[in-house]
């Protein structure tokens, strides 16, 4: 009897032979079928997906046309991707000289390296900060030229090149300006506080498209005759200053979440204002506000599409010129689906990274 009892007890304690099946079943019951109402919603959604996904894949891929020279080569009922495949270099590089495209590829690689660099935990954060400071100037030098590279006019910038450049450079410059504005708004000096408040409230109360029109049409009127500023730089400055105003409020909210005891402790230790901010306060604030700051970066990345109204051809401008070309009339759906896929990949990657940072911060608090 003792042997039989031990055998029964061991059978009860033995783990399941396929634990992954047990976990999957438990997850499905908990997430998809916890209540009768949610079970009906899950089944309805599943039926719609089973109907829609094969149809969508057939139209997008299996019956689609990817190779050809003109609209006449599009046969069948699938999508015609020829407007994109035939002009893919224009979508990506704009009017950049063919012999200098390698510079754009390096700039893309540098921009894409930001997230991996931020992921690395073994690298000293001072090196990461130095890299982020140098990156905008390095990308501008690669794209614009000079100092050993042949110069390229910014009028040649177009397509994804413009979108990536404005998004990355705008974020890297807007963050430090936003920090200074947030500190200025909390300053005890009335003049600095007043200027910061006026700037933040003025910029946040005006649509960004209005500021873009002012940068492209009105600012030039205030310069001496013969003096001009590149329209690309003017647009970049507007996006930077507009984003910085919103970031300032996000960072100010983080500053208000820091207890006053930390300021008093730093003051008791003899720390100066900037030493207190740089070593104690701002590291905590930035750590807590990184997810909303990345959300604002996603917003900035999408707002770069507005530059087309002032004559800067980003990827949306190239798409509009493609759909209006006589040889590609009637193929607007494919072109704008390509745009949607491009922005989805970028924004989804940034959103996933923001969720990763939130999980890391939750673990560090435990």
UniProtKB/TrEMBL annotation:
<dbReference type="GO" id="GO:0043190">
    <property type="term" value="C:ATP-binding cassette (ABC) transporter complex"/>
</dbReference>
<dbReference type="InterPro" id="IPR043429">
    <property type="entry name" value="ArtM/GltK/GlnP/TcyL/YhdX-like"/>
</dbReference>
<keyword id="KW-0472">Membrane</keyword>
<keyword id="KW-1003">Cell membrane</keyword>
<feature type="transmembrane region" description="Helical">
    <location>
        <begin position="231"/>
        <end position="248"/>
    </location>
</feature>
<keyword id="KW-0029">Amino-acid transport</keyword>
<dbReference type="GO" id="GO:0022857">
    <property type="term" value="F:transmembrane transporter activity"/>
</dbReference>
<feature type="transmembrane region" description="Helical">
    <location>
        <begin position="158"/>
        <end position="183"/>
    </location>
</feature>
<protein>
    <submittedName>
        <fullName>General L-amino acid transport system permease protein</fullName>
    </submittedName>
</protein>
<comment type="similarity">
    <text>Belongs to the binding-protein-dependent transport system permease family. HisMQ subfamily.</text>
</comment>
<feature type="transmembrane region" description="Helical">
    <location>
        <begin position="101"/>
        <end position="120"/>
    </location>
</feature>
<feature type="transmembrane region" description="Helical">
    <location>
        <begin position="335"/>
        <end position="354"/>
    </location>
</feature>
<dbReference type="InterPro" id="IPR000515">
    <property type="entry name" value="MetI-like"/>
</dbReference>
<dbReference type="InterPro" id="IPR010065">
    <property type="entry name" value="AA_ABC_transptr_permease_3TM"/>
</dbReference>
<keyword id="KW-0813">Transport</keyword>
<feature type="transmembrane region" description="Helical">
    <location>
        <begin position="195"/>
        <end position="219"/>
    </location>
</feature>
<feature type="transmembrane region" description="Helical">
    <location>
        <begin position="40"/>
        <end position="62"/>
    </location>
</feature>
<keyword id="KW-1133">Transmembrane helix</keyword>
<feature type="domain" description="ABC transmembrane type-1">
    <location>
        <begin position="160"/>
        <end position="354"/>
    </location>
</feature>
<dbReference type="GO" id="GO:0006865">
    <property type="term" value="P:amino acid transport"/>
</dbReference>
<feature type="transmembrane region" description="Helical">
    <location>
        <begin position="127"/>
        <end position="143"/>
    </location>
</feature>
<feature type="transmembrane region" description="Helical">
    <location>
        <begin position="304"/>
        <end position="323"/>
    </location>
</feature>
<keyword id="KW-0812">Transmembrane</keyword>
<dbReference type="Pfam" id="PF00528">
    <property type="entry name" value="BPD_transp_1"/>
</dbReference>
<dbReference type="InterPro" id="IPR035906">
    <property type="entry name" value="MetI-like_sf"/>
</dbReference>
